[in-house]
Amino acid sequence: KASEKSQDTPTKSYGKPVAANKPPRLEQDGKKWNVEYFKNRQDLEINEIEVNQSVYVYKCEGSTIKVNGKCNNIIIDGCKKTAVVFGSVVSSVEFINCQSVQMQVLGKVPTISVDKTDGCQMFLNQESVGAEIVTA
Questions:
Q1: Alpha-carbon distance 98 to 58, whole Å?
Q2: For residue 70, how many other CB atoms are within 10 A of its CB?
Q3: How wide is the angle at C-alpha 97 spanned by C-alphas 33 and 95, nearest 5°?
Q4: Whole-angstrom Cα distance, residue 37 to residue 15?
Q5: Closest of 104, 63, 110, 111 to residue 87, by C-alpha
Q6: For residue 128, what is the DSSP state?
Q7: What is the pLDDT of residues 76-119, one digit of tens each?
Q8: In degrees rounded to 5, what are phi and psi of residue 73?
Q9: The whole model's pTM is what?
Q10: Nearest Cα to 98, choosing from 127, 71, 130, 121?
Q11: How far apart, in Å, are the Cα atoms of 135 and each of 9, 53, 97?
Q12: What's the angle, vertex CA 70, arms to CA 53 and CA 66, rounded to 5?
């Protein structure tokens, strides 16, 4: 029957793409530590970090990351309900595209930058009370 529509034509759907569940990973890539796709993990730690290395936290949800030691900078991107506890940072801590995130500094942080983020709590110690906080 020629009047029946072929079932081969895909139906067009508009909207947000479905996020693929990628495997979580915590690894060092050169001078950058990647912490990606973790869900509901409270025990993530980076111990052997150096002053010239950076930490990039991406698409984590309901997790806590502890950075022991001093690093160059920390970027938290696209995370929900995620907390970062760290020692000292040389340049800055950045939050980008996040929801309900927290940070706690145990040492010193000079600059905290918050972009496109909904709900960000910062716990500063006495050393870091003078930190510059930049929001867009």
A1: 10
A2: 16
A3: 55
A4: 22
A5: 104
A6: G
A7: 999 999 999 999 999 999 999 999 999 999 999 999 999 999 99
A8: -155, 165
A9: 0.84
A10: 121
A11: 47, 24, 12
A12: 95
